[in-house]
Amino acid sequence: MHDPQFERRRQKSSVLVGLLLFGLILFLIQLWLFVMVLENMLAGKTDMAIQAAAASFVMLGVNVWMLAGVNRMVRMQ
After folding, report:
1. Do the beta carbons of residue 52 and residue 37 sit within 8 Å?
2. DSSP-assigned letters across all residues of 31-62
């Protein structure tokens, strides 16, 4: 049987891996948004830029929130 400290570290590492994967998905979505806006702007359509910027700011907020959670989790040792 493992001690509670080992189980806590194992759970923290699982949470960190999950957050990293979610952050990677958010990054890929932002990259996709950037490419779509760039293609539309080259085609002369600028109407998608504001919506993409708003979505990108929301994703930035989620990333900052996740970073604060990771910092809290690290400090709780």
Report:
1. yes
2. HHHHHHHHHHHHTT--THHHHHHHHHHHHHHH
The structure's pTM equals 0.79
pLDDT digits (tens, 9 = 90+) for 46-77: 899 999 999 999 999 999 999 999 899 888 86
* CA distances for 50 relative to 28, 29, 42, 69, angstroms: 19, 16, 16, 29
Whether the Cβ atoms of residue 48 and residue 36 lie closer than 8 Å to each other: yes
pLDDT for 27-50, tens place per residue? 999 999 999 999 999 999 989 999
How far is the C-alpha of 27 from the C-alpha of 46, rounded, in Å? 22
